[in-house]
Structures are given as structure tokens and as C-alpha cells.
Design a protein that fits this description.
By secondary structure, the protein is mostly helical. It is 69% helix and 2% strand.
């Protein structure tokens, strides 16, 4: 694909820089606090609010924001507003203090030594009255842990940025993946920047339904204790467990899921529904009935009347823990087969080393060298700190990062939904025979998790003729500032009250889950079957490969990556996505015309999401006002 770089304009200007800095200072502390209270972050509500504010300020001063400036603001603020406490290394330093002071963890031992005694000083401060009761990062025992976590954060960030620029030509110019969620970004940006009456009319007309829905779904339940719409889903399992026990059946009630379903390609939506049904409905039932001997703990722990959360939790740990790793690995190998031609063609440019001044990205050899440095250095550092075998860390950080980036991008680029690889590092450590503690709880850098999201942003940059590097600069500035401000915010919140405590209830619940999970895995009380890993990977390659073959040769509305995305997505969401995708791909185009819908669907979905996001933002603000005067018992 030939790119005329003269068409691309700058978006990283002093105005977008000011917006990024101001938003970081305002919203990162709020997001960090909210994530420890509810597990959520401020998200789109904060992003849209700040972009609207700066757009109106620019308009008042007679110099409206350009489309490119608006996009850089929107994408950068979207990343900033998604930063919660768990994204900041200092949060996990506090967690280590919680871990070593939790009595239950002293019951788990390696060679007779309790696990808390195996926590090294570079993961958390030694167990002393100072570290436990003087709640501050400004003490000497905190220096080493903060340096370690910061170093891994920086190496991970460098890896993701290098992968993004390395793979952008392949997926955006050669494969031309649609990245359906990029249309939302473009719709919102065009509405705010161009003030095109068509975009504005559609955007505003759908903003109010989203706002009204958010008031009934979020505001009234939280502030008035009046529940009209159960979140995050309507649980239908009490009505279906007598017919198909163990199945997860429900309807998602989050407005964002309904809105974005309109722009998901039908082939992806259908395949996700099939994949989700195979795992969470049919699979759960079969392992509870016909094949109960293969998952005896699942059959033993299941009880009639269990809702979606309990069924999901128990079936995940007792049936799908190892297979989900295999599903992701199988897709990685399948993607290599599907994209091998373009993949090889792209990497020929590395050996040729010829990037002219007409490229949108730096020299690919330089990018690949940066990627190799960051991943290799993280593996070496991990080896020196933990004693974990270096060759395994190198394969994980270097090879798997590239494979994961390919698979995850292929899936997100076609369906809008990425692939999660839960407990991949723990699985590798499990089979390595490693006997320590630290190698379990911290791993070398694995790239590819953030890369697809960055490529989604760059897809929006291509559509709006924004220089891709300007988007990357904005995101980089936002992440660096968010890391600094987030760490200082944690310092403040920790001084106010212990973390976890009743003031931060989600941390109290989540840390207990993570703590017990770590202890069970480290002492190998959770069994991971290698046959399950290999079998699930082979199953994925065969079935997803069949879907791709039917798509290519029979023009069937199927998608291999979409199928695998469904393996990781619960049925309440895939049911809604399939319904809305059918409406967005067939019904609405018949009513308004396909060309018109293609032009305006981003504004439509953006309007619904914005209204819902504003309701969430309003609720958070009112909640803070109501709670501001009372923080006791601390």
C-alpha cells in the first residue's frame, strides 16, 4: 500500500500537550482512587469531558482545534483515564507488605519455609514496624522495590512502542485490518473537530439516550440505592440450570457493549458467539455431565442455583485454566500461518534495511534492535534477580512477545476484541521446576498486550490523516506523567488510610484473591495438565483454521480470530454483540443506506457511549462530594 505522507498533519502541538498535562493532574488521582474502591477507572467519561472542554476553549478564543490535535488529545487522554492503581508499580510494593503480613500466607511453605519469609527486599520492604505502620514511599527500604518495578515498566513501555511501529506497516498498510473500534474514535473526533452538522445531529440525538440509560443504570443505584437495571448483566442461569446445568447464560446490560456491537463486523460477532457458546455453555455442561471424570473438582463444586460469577470462577479454575493458555498459543501459531506471506515480506525489509525519508516510521532495523534490547535486558535482569533460567526468560520475552503481538493484533484488528493470556507466566514457571518465590510473582517483559490498542489508535490516525508518531508522542507523554502522578497519588492515599482497608474495599477483596492464588500456584496446589495445554492449542488451530478456510474459499461469514476471542468472552456479551452487529450490518443500512451508515456509525456509537460516559462521570463526582467529609474509622 502506497502512503502519501504529505497528506498527514501534525497533532502533537502545545495545545494538545497542555490538555494531556492538565488531564493527568486532574484525573489520574481520581482514577487511582476509584480503582481501589470499585475496581473501575474514570475511562471514557473523563476523556470526552476534557476533549470537550479544550475544544470549547479553543473555539471561544477563535482558533478551533484541528482534527489532528483533537485525535491526539482523545487517544492520549483515553490511555491516561484508563490508568488505575494496578497499573502503577508502587501499588504492588504495598501489596507485598500486605502479603507478608497476611496470616494465611504463612501456612504455605516451600521446603518448610513460609512463603512470606522468601519475599526478597527488592520486591518489598522487610517486615518491620516501619514498613508496616509508617505508610510512605519516602523511606530507604522502598528504594530498591520502586527501582525494580519502574525499570520493568520502562522496559515494557519501550517494547510496546517498538512493536507498534514495527508492526504498523504490516497490519495497517499490507493486511489493512479494519480495527472496527477505530471508527468510534474517528466519529467522536470528527464531531468535535469539524462540527459537521450531520455528525453533530447524529451525535447529539444519541447522546441523550445514552445519558438517560446511564442515569438509570449507574447514578440511581449508586446514589439512591434504587436498582432499575442490574449490572453488568441480567443473570438467566437460575432459569436455565435445570435444563443445561453449568452453562453461563445472560444478557449484558452495559450500554457500551450494546453501542459498540453496532460496528463489529458480522463475521466476527457470529464467530465470537459460536466460540463463547462452545466454551461457556456447551463445554461447561459437558464437563459437568458427560465428561465429569475429566474435571472432577468442577463437578464436585458445582451447585444448582449458582449465578454467573460463581460458575465463571469455578469453571475457569477447575476446567479452563490451562486450556485458555492453549487457546491463545494455538491462535499465535495459526496467525503465523495465515499472515506468513505478508509477515515474511515485511521482515525482508529488515535485511534490506532500506527505509527512505518517505516512511511514516523510523528504520525497521533500529526498531527491531530496540525491541531486542528491551526484551533481552528484561530477561537478563529477571534472571539476575530471581535465579530463574535465562533461556526460558529469553524465549518468553523475545519470541512470545512477537507472537503474542501478532495474534492479539490480528484478533483485535478484525473483531475489536483482543486476547488475554491469563497466568501464562505462571504456567511456564509451573513446568520449569522452579523452587523459589520471586520468579513466580514477577516475570520478564511480555510485549503485545498494549500493541493492538496502539495500532487501533494509529488506524484512527490514518483515517484522519494524523501523523502516527504524533499519536505515539502524546500517549508516551501521558503514560510517563500518569506513572509519576499515580505514584504520588498512591503515596497520598496510603497516608490517609492503610491499603487495603474499608476505605479502599476493592483492594481488600482483590488482594485477598491474588494473594491466595499466588500461594496456591507457588506451592503447586493448582494442577496444570500439559495434555490440556497441547490439546487445546491443537483444537484452536484446527477449528479456527477451518473457520478461516470457510471464510476464504466458501465466503462464509466466519472469522478464526473471532472464534478464539469468543473463547475468552462470556455469553452475556457475545449474545448482545451478535444482536447489535446484525442490526448494524443489515437492518440500519437497509433503512438509511449503507454509504450513509458507514459515514455516520462512528458518530452514532460515539454519541451513545458519550452520554453513558457522562452519566458515569456525574455519578463519580456526586459520589466524591457525598463521601468527602467522612473517612473514618481511619
Amino acid at each position: 500500500m502506497s502512503i502519501d505522507i504529505s497528506e498527514f498533519k501534525e497533532g502533537f502541538t502545545w495545545r494538545s500537550i497542555v490538555a494531556i498535562l492538565a488531564s493527568t493532574l486532574i484525573f489520574v488521582p481520581v482514577s487511582v482512587y476509584l480503582s481501589m474502591v470499585t475496581g473501575a477507572v474514570v475511562g471514557m467519561a473523563a476523556t470526552l469531558l476534557m476533549v470537550l472542554v479544550f475544544s470549547e476553549l479553543a473555539s471561544i478564543f477563535g482558533n478551533m482545534l484541528t482534527t489532528q490535535e483533537t485525535l491526539v488529545m482523545y487517544e492520549s487522554l483515553g490511555v491516561i483515564s484508563s490508568i488505575g492503581a494496578a497499573s502503577i508499580g508502587a501499588y504492588w510494593v504495598i501489596f507485598r507488605i500486605f502479603y507478608v503480613t497476611s496470616p494465611i500466607n504463612w501456612a504455605f511453605k516451600i521446603h518448610g519455609v513460609p512463603l512470606p519469609k522468601l519475599v526478597p527486599s527488592w520486591l518489598g520492604p522487610p517486615l518491620t514496624p516501619t514498613s508496616e505502620y509508617v505508610r510512605t514511599f519516602f523511606q530507604s527500604s522502598m528504594i530498591a522495590p520502586l527501582i525494580v518495578y519502574t525499570t520493568f515498566f520502562v522496559l515494557g513501555f519501550i517494547t510496546e512502542i517498538a512493536l507498534t511501529m514495527l508492526l504498523a506497516p504490516l497490519f495497517l498498510e499490507v493486511e489493512k485490518l479494519p480495527f472496527p473500534f477505530a471508527n468510534i474514535d474517528v466519529g467522536v473526533v470528527n464531531t468535535l473537530a469539524t462540527r459537521d452538522i450531520r455528525y453533530v445531529r447524529v451525535f447529539i440525538s444519541l447522546l441523550f439516550p445514552g445519558l438517560l440509560y446511564g442515569i438509570f443504570a449507574i447514578t440511581l443505584p449508586l446514589l439512591g440505592a434504587i436498582t432499575f437495571i442490574p449490572l453488568p448483566w441480567v443473570d438467566l442461569t437460575p432459569y436455565t440450570d435445570s435444563i443445561i446445568p453449568g452453562a453461563i447464560i445472560g444478557i449484558a446490560t452495559d450500554a457500551f457493549t450494546w453501542a459498540v456491537g453496532l460496528i463489529v463486523p458480522f463475521s466476527a460477532a457470529l464467530s465470537m458467539f459460536i466460540g463463547s457458546t462452545l466454551i461457556w455453555i456447551i463445554g461447561n455442561n459437558l464437563f459437568l455431565t458427560t465428561f465429569r471424570d475429566l474435571a472432577p473438582l468442577w463437578a464436585q463444586e458445582y451447585r444448582r442455583g449458582m449465578g454467573i460469577p460463581l460458575i465463571w470462577q469455578r469453571s475457569l479454575y477447575r476446567v479452563w485454566f490451562a486450556p485458555q493458555i492453549g487457546f491463545g498459543l494455538g491462535l499465535m501459531f495459526l496467525v503465523l500461518l495465515i499472515t506468513s506471506k505478508n509477515f515474511v515480506r515485511f521482515f525482508k525489509s529488515l535485511s534490506a534495511a532500506r527505509r527512505t525519508g518517505h516512511s511514516l516510521y523510523p528504520n525497521p532495523i533500529l526498531l527491531f534492535a530496540v525491541f531486542l534490547f528491551a526484551t533481552s535486558f528484561s530477561a537478563i535482569l529477571h534472571n539476575q534477580l530471581t535465579g530463574f533460567p535465562l533461556y526460558i526468560s529469553l524465549v518468553y520475552s523475545v519470541v512470545l512477545s512477537l507472537l503474542y503481538a501478532l495474534a492479539n493484533t490480528m484478533t483485535l484488528g478484525t473483531t475489536g476484541y483482543g486476547i488475554n493470556l491469563p497466568y501464562l507466566w505462571h504456567t511456564i514457571v509451573y513446568f520449569s521446576g522452579y523452587e523459589g518465590y520471586s520468579g513466580w510473582v514477577i516475570g520478564p517483559v511480555l510485549g503485545g498486550g498494549f500493541t493492538p490498542g496502539m495500532l487501533n489508535m494509529l488506524r484512527a490516525a490514518y483515517l484522519t490523516k494524523t501523523k502516527p508518531l504524533d499519536v505515539i508522542k502524546g500517549v508516551a507523554l501521558g503514560l510517563i506523567m500518569a506513572f509519576i502522578v499515580g505514584t504520588l497519588s498512591l503515596e497520598l492515599f496510603w497516608r490517609i488510610a492503610p491499603i487495603p482497608s474499608s476505605l479502599y474495599p476493592f483492594s481488600l477483596i482483590d488482594w485477598a484473591r491474588i494473594s491466595i492464588g499466588d500461594s496456591l500456584l507457588i506451592t503447586r496446589q493448582i494442577r496444570i495438565d500439559p495434555q490440556m495445554l497441547g490439546g487445546s492449542a491443537a483444537f484452536t488451530i484446527i477449528l479456527a483454521g477451518l473457520f478461516e478456510a470457510l471464510r476464504i474459499f466458501a465466503h462464509a461469514p466466519l472469522s478464526g480470530p473471532g472464534l478464539v476471542a469468543g473463547f475468552f468472552t462470556l455469553p452475556p456479551y457475545t449474545i448482545v454483540i451478535l444482536i447489535m452487529s446484525t442490526i448494524g450490518n443489515f437492518l440500519i443500512p437497509k433503512l438509511v443506506g449503507r454509504e450513509t451508515w458507514d459515514q455516520l456509525k462512528g458518530a452514532a456509537v460515539g454519541g451513545l457511549a458519550t452520554g453513558y460516559g457522562l452519566a458515569v462521570g456525574l455519578t463519580i463526582a456526586l459520589f466524591f462530594v457525598r463521601s468527602a467529609g467522612w473517612i473514618w474509622p481511619w
